[in-house]
Amino acid sequence: MASLLPAGVVTVAAYEPEWEEGLLDAEEPLVAGATYRRRREFAAARNCARRALAHLGVLDFPILAGEAREPLWPVGITGSITHGGGYCAAALAPVARVHSLGIDVTLNAPLPEEVHDLVCTPGELRRMATSAELDIPMLLFSVKESVYKAWYQIAGTWLDYLEVDVDLDLRESAFSARLLSPIAGKRDGLPSSFAGRFAVAPGHIFTAVSVPASTPAAG
Ligand SMILES: CC(C)(COP(=O)(O)OP(=O)(O)OC[C@H]1O[C@@H](n2cnc3c(N)ncnc32)[C@H](O)[C@@H]1OP(=O)(O)O)[C@@H](O)C(=O)NCCC(=O)NCCS
């Protein structure tokens, strides 16, 4: 994941054998009543995030969650969390360097065909490439989850999969995502497009989006 993000972002990732258990007291209510699996992934990712925070000079900070489940970072820091398929990661940066971040890991498996047109815009379906290495609809799904995480932290509003149109550059393992939503460009400071990178490993697709601190206000 780290290689997908720009300088200044601190990324800490772990595969399941290295996962750390244990939460700070204030975080316990966030997984009260959760399944064993949910608690394990949550704790592993929170501990990755805490190690990243320590790199940024913040110790023992309880990472609570907002009303849409978004992680709440210390003032002056932004970041993103992902977990799944025996992997978890957290990417954090000072807001002076990065305005917002979104990271996602997903299984490198075919996205069921019956949801293609719920996830992919008509333009994406028309442009759909094929790859021996990865399932393109699943890649688009992961890209949109990364975009949503980065978007939500600065906009505080929901985005639907069909409100984002993604152009993939398979050769460069990069993408750009354009918001089709009417919200885009209507509020000062919100970006209307996102640039990111992806990587493929056996079993996983990783995507990451970062909005530079210097991104000009849209509209
Ligand atoms: C929120 C969502 C993106 C999480 O993705 P996921 O593949 O289920 O799970 P991941 O492990 O990758 O990410 C989960 C983490 O994302 C973070 N997250 C959850 N909601 C978030 C939000 N609104 N904004 C930013 N980050 C969020 C949390 O840290 C969460 O982990 P935690 O609950 O353990 O703290 C997904 O569940 C969802 O609701 N998607 C629908 C909205 C969407 O993606 N639209 C696409 C439009 S472009």
Q: Please count the beta strands (DSSP E, at least 2 residues each).
A: 8
- Hetero groups: coenzyme A
Give the SSE string: EHEEEHHHEEEE
Beta-strand content estimate: 25-35%
Distance between the termini: 31 Å
Mind summarizing the main beta sheet?
5 strands, antiparallel
In what order do the strands lie side by side in the largest sheet? 4-8-7-6-5
Number of helices: 4
Overall pLDDT level: 93
Low-confidence spans: none
Structural class: alpha+beta
Question: What would the principal axes of the Cα set say about the shape?
Answer: globular
* Rg computed from alpha carbons, rounded to a whole number of angstroms: 17 Å
Helix content bin: 10-25%
What does this 3D model show about the protein?
By secondary structure, the chain is an alpha+beta fold. It has helices spanning 36-55, 116-119, 122-127, 136-155; strands spanning 10-15, 77-84, 87-94, 98-107, 164-169, 174-179, 193-201, 204-212. Strand 5 (164-169) and strand 6 (174-179) form a beta hairpin. It is globular, with a radius of gyration of 17 Å. The chain starts with 9 loop residues before the first strand and ends in a 7-residue tail after the last strand. The model has no long low-confidence stretch (mean pLDDT 93). It binds coenzyme A. Coenzyme A (COA) is lined by residues 42, 45, 65, 68-71, 81-84, 104, 144-145, 147-149, 152-153, 159-161, 164.
